[in-house]
């Protein structure tokens, strides 16, 4: 096992940084995650981000728009259930 390297003064949570590096993450990504975790609780770091409702809550128009963004073929003739399935399987 190689010797542990000092990540530098900019990394606020060296233990998490090292664990992330051992998982194969880049230095930059590891430092960014470790610093975010040091500024907030570790549980919040991965939970940050938006939430979109379940596809069942979307209108057919919204589902078709998303299917178009993903270039799903046959979307214009699909039912709501078929669109939901196609989006989930994409």
TrEMBL record:
Residues 20-31 have a biased composition (Basic and acidic residues). Residues 20-54 are annotated as: Disordered. InterPro entries: DUF7218, Rho-like_N, Rho_N_sf. Residues 57-87 form the Rho termination factor-like N-terminal domain. Signal peptide: none annotated. It comes from the Bacteria. This is Rho termination factor.
């Amino acid at each position: 096992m190689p010797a542990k390297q000092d990540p530098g003064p900019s990394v606020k949570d060296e233990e998490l940084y090292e664990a992330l590096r051992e998982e194969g993450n880049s230095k930059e990504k590891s430092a960014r995650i470790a610093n975010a975790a040091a500024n907030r609780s570790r549980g919040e770091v991965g939970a940050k981000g938006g939430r979109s409702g379940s596809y069942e809550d979307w209108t057919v128009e919204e589902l078709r728009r998303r299917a178009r963004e993903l270039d799903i073929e046959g979307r214009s003739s699909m039912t709501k259930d078929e669109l939901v399935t196609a989006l989930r399987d994409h």
